[in-house]
Amino acid sequence: MRRRRSLAGESGDTGEINLTPMLDVVFIMLIFFIVTTSFIKESGVEIERPESSAAAPQADAQLMVAITPEDAVWVDGEPVDAHRVGDVVAPLVSDDGGVVIQADRNASTGRLIEVMDRIRQAGVDNVAVAATRGSS
Description:
- The longest helix is centred in the N-terminal third of the chain and has 17 residues, at 20-36.
- This protein has a five-stranded mixed sheet. A two-stranded parallel sheet has the order 1-7.
- It has helices at residues 7-11, 20-36, 85-89, 109-121; strands spanning 51-52, 61-67, 73-75, 78-80, 98-103, 127-129, 132-133.
- The chain is an alpha/beta fold.
């Protein structure tokens, strides 16, 4: 008996898809997102924020400074003396970045004002206070 060969077998075309260009595009996109991502340095402590009905998101926050209920100041996971907080924060913030102060609801207002003043005296103009959005 004679065997017949199929037409697809004679042409030698296996119908495979080349994935190399797609992988190149994916890696280029991955590199792009890694380079353009801005990272926010967290304060390192758990804070119970006060509520505010006028709270709005801060888009360009680059650094978080926390004030605990015991009035201790934390920057980037490390406790910092309140008198030196400006000297510690200023090198960590770029010219267009900002600082968000997360003061616990039981922290004293005097400590919050002192920390804000020290940060502004160090040359950081964009300083905000964090709050959770309340239903008032």
